[in-house]
Design goal:
This protein is mostly helical. It contains seven helices and three strands, in the order αβααββαααα. The chain starts with a helix and ends in a 6-residue tail after the last helix.
């Protein structure tokens, strides 16, 4: 099975993050595009779809001739981090991929169980949201917000 270019770029960036001492890496889009013999928009695609906050990364960019992309790997160490994630989610629409990335992150950091992951994934990606038609992403965003709010409540226990 051939690995896609996007996956190759993702794996390269993740390897750089693993090797970094502080969990961050600073890159130039043009350098990555040259290395992988692609256009800079391919790099943007990978950054936007695989390195968002919901997946556990913070991206800082500066455009222009000396522009860079700084990718910082984040973690959810405690409820304070969940609170930050909740504030970022706000009441904004969220597409299926972003919700899936967030759930994968919560599972990977053992915030939720495999069963909770499966339940939430089916709700966030399920056909039930299609009933909302043009408001599907808004409804999913609100559901994610409610999930995060419940995860940070102190009175809930396993």
């Amino acid at each position: 099975m051939a690995i896609t270019l996007a996956t190759q770029i993702e794996n390269y960036i993740k390897r750089l993050l693993e090797l970094s001492e502080d969990g961050s890496v600073e890159l130039r889009r043009a350098d990555l595009a040259d290395m992988f013999m692609c256009v800079p928009s391919q790099i943007n695609y990978v950054l936007n779809t695989r390195f968002g906050t919901e997946a556990g990364y913070f991206i800082e960019t500066r455009r222009g001739g000396s522009g860079y992309v700084r990718i910082i790997q984040t973690g959810l160490a405690d409820n304070a981090d969940l609170t930050v994630l909740l504030a970022q989610a706000g009441d904004k629409p969220m597409n299926r991929q972003a919700a899936a990335n967030l759930l994968t992150r919560l599972l990977g950091e053992e915030i939720i169980t495999k069963r909770e992951y499966a339940i939430c994934r089916s709700l966030f990606a399920g056909d039930a949201l299609k009933l909302a038609e043009d408001r599907e992403d808004l409804l999913r965003g609100r559901m994610v917000r409610l999930l995060l709010m419940n995860l940070i409540r102190d009175d809930l226990s396993d």
